[in-house]
Automatic annotation (TrEMBL):
One of its GO terms (cellular component) is cytoplasm. Residues 520-531 have a biased composition (Pro residues). GO terms for biological process: sperm axoneme assembly. This is Coiled-coil domain containing 108. Residues 1-87 form the CFAP65-like ninth Ig-like domain. Residues 505-537 are annotated as: Disordered. Residues 89-206 form the CFAP65 tenth Ig-like domain. Gene3D superfamilies: Immunoglobulins.
Length: 616
């Protein structure tokens, strides 16, 4: 096999053949190959049956613009595959966003009252902050063409993208018909540039489950220190307000190097809530050590299709220690030059190294500014002048090297390697999830108490609606509520559940430390309470009698209290932590999952065996 660049595919023509002028595309390809913007290592090789080989592709940001190069991957006595290499280099002070020109939404059920949110990402690969804004006139026109129905709406139409980060645009696709929708939406960047993205979406009649494709890297690449057991984690279909956990492993495949890792966890836009959490979030792995990572996915209140890209930064500990040592020596030299000075020695200033804080930046060359051919030495009569030309050039290079040796630049931290973990999930409303996956609902844990507290049982927006409604509106609401309540009360399953509920034990309630005694029945707000000053006018024996009755009632109530079942969220947390601890101990070799179970006899059996021995 071999990767063939355009120069490798060129056929040598005889001298009498006319080649003609080169096109602009061919000149660009020659310039890209002369500057060595794209490199492939190795370029060719031979693979035996069952053998593997890692190939590295790299791009150098030396020429400003979009550079493209066609490369052919050829197998000996086999097929040929065309690969299109593309790289983009922008100026340092120019805003630029990298975005896909075409995006396909997941199919959505026609007539869905709450269609899911779907994500589209913009990446800022430049060095300045970029402002983006979605052209909403196209979306308004699309809504008018579809009977004033919002077929496509953007929840976050504008925002800022920091350098080196991503912006997630949330979209809601709500089709009206069973057809394929194609919408061209422009996105403005700093009011100068424009990106036109074609969004495609299809309306369906029935709900479909998520695909279960999981990519697994079989072997680590050359130079890779940490290795993920899975490249993608598929959460699948889950109901809203639910929590799901997955387990994967992070292994240090190096035999000599220790490594540090740090996970970058994205946050939900507009809130501090993390949809995904990984434990441990950071840590250190010794050579050939493996750690267990627990991924917890918490679905939001609204149906959403999540496509998340989690990044793990991996830094070798030896490179980090070397960086800190070099930085400490550089700072000590800087403090020494600031505090010390020499008067008598005049040659000291010549031998002293110049400290520079900034990192050397090489400005990329604009596309088309390089010459087509390299400059040749001047034509000379003898060979001595040609030799002197190369000798002078070497001396100039040596002079530049000596000047560069006098400059001591500030050490830069080691660049971490990146590991990508894809997380895919699709959250549904509870009714839709029961229709789609009725047999899997019992496997989901919905932590409703963490989402909705006791004070938010009734939304404040709907609380004053009945009292503030006008006459006809109040009658309509009262009639609807009356019909709903009568239907609920006439349901036989509800009546049976109420009978069963009365016989169940009381749910767990944490003790109130602020009160001195337990009051099983709170006072009704309708009954008037006697002011505390009236207790002073009562006779003394009446007060003692009341205190005795209250104390006796409290003792009876406390004696009736029995241990009851803990809440579901507490049981979930305890069991989950127990299983995770067992897996962690098994990974570290402290617990053998395949060992024969150890049977411990009860204490009564041990006592029965001890009595005959005492008699003997």
């Amino acid at each position: 096999w071999a990767f063939l660049f355009p120069k490798d595919q060129r056929t040598e023509l005889p001298g009498w053949a006319e080649t003609g002028e080169l096109s602009s595309t061919e000149l660009d390809h020659m310039q890209i190959q002369d500057c060595k913007l794209f490199t492939v290592a190795p370029r060719s090789g031979t693979l035996l049956p069952g053998q593997k080989r890692a190939v590295q592709f790299s791009y150098s940001h030396n020429v400003i613009g979009t550079n493209r190069l066609p490369v052919v991957f050829k197998l000996s006595y086999g097929r040929e595959t065309l690969l299109n290499f593309q790289g983009v280099t922008v100026e340092q002070d120019k805003p630029h966003l990298f975005a896909s020109n075409q995006h396909a939404f997941a199919p959505v059920d026609v007539g869905d009252c709450r269609p899911p949110r779907q994500m589209y990402e913009l990446y800022n690969g430049g060095a300045v902050q970029v402002h983006y804004e979605v052209d909403r006139t196209v979306l308004s026109q699309l809504q008018m063409d579809n009977f004033n129905h919002p077929v496509l709406s953007c929840i976050s139409p504008q925002g800022e993208v920091l350098p080196g980060e991503k912006a997630t645009l949330e979209w809601i696709f709500s089709p009206l018909e069973l057809k394929l929708y194609q919408m061209d939406v422009p996105i403005h960047i700093h009011e100068n540039d424009l990106i036109t993205v074609r969004f495609e979406g299809c309306g369906t009649k029935t709900l479909t489950q998520s695909s279960s494709d999981v990519r697994i890297q079989s072997e680590p690449f050359p130079g890779q220190v940490l290795f993920l057991s899975e490249d993608s984690v598929l959460i699948g279909d889950v109901p809203v307000r639910s929590q799901t956990t997955r387990v994967f492993f992070l292994t240090n495949v190096s035999h000599t190097e220790s490594a540090l890792f740090l996970w970058e966890i994205p946050r939900q836009k507009g809130s501090d809530q993390k949809v995904v959490q990984i434990h441990p979030e950071r840590g250190r792995l010794r050579p050939e050590e493996c750690t267990l990572c627990v991924l917890t996915f918490s679905s939001t209140d609204y149906p959403t299709i999540h496509q998340l890209d989690l990044i793990c930064q991996v830094t070798q500990e030896a490179a980090l220690v070397q960086y800190h040592d070099e930085l400490q020596r550089w700072e000590e030299e800087k403090r020494r030059q600031e505090n010390e000075f020499i008067i008598t020695d005049k040659s000291a200033s010549k031998n002293q190294r110049v400290l520079v804080d900034e990192k050397p930046q090489t400005s990329p060359v604009k596309k088309g500014s390089l010459s087509k051919y390299k400059v040749l030495p001047p034509i000379a009569a003898g060979s001595e002048e040609t030799v002197s030309f190369y000798t002078n050039q070497t001396r100039a290079e040596r002079r530049l090297q000596r000047e560069a040796a006098k400059i001591w630049r500030c050490p830069q931290p080691p660049r971490p390697a990146l590991l990508h973990l894809r997380v895919a999930a699709h959250s549904f409303e509870l009714q839709d999830y029961l229709k789609l996956c009725p047999d899997e609902y019992h496997t989901c844990f919905r932590n409703i108490q963490a989402k909705i507290g006791p004070t938010s049982a009734v939304p404040p927006l709907f609380a004053p609606s009945l009292s503030s409604a006008p006459g006809p509106g109040k009658d309509i609401v009262a009639q609807i509520l009356t019909c709903m309540i009568s239907d609920i009360l006439s349901d036989p399953e509800l009546a049976q559940s109420l009978v069963t509920l009365s016989s169940k034990p009381r749910p767990y309630q944490p003790a109130d430390t602020s009160s001195t005694h337990f009051s099983p029945v709170p006072p009704s707000p309708c009954t008037p309470t006697r002011p505390p000053s009236t207790s002073v006018t009562l006779p003394q024996h009446h007060r003692l009698l009341n205190e005795a009755v209250a104390k006796e009632g409290t003792e009876k109530t406390q004696n009736k209290l029995q241990p009851v079942l803990a809440p579901a969220y507490m049981c979930e947390a305890v069991l989950l932590n127990t299983l995770q601890n067992l897996l962690t101990e098994a990974v570290k070799g402290q617990f053998d999952l395949t060992a024969h179970p150890c049977i411990i006899p009860p204490s009564s059996y041990l006592r029965s065996r001890a009595k005959p021995e005492e008699d003997q």
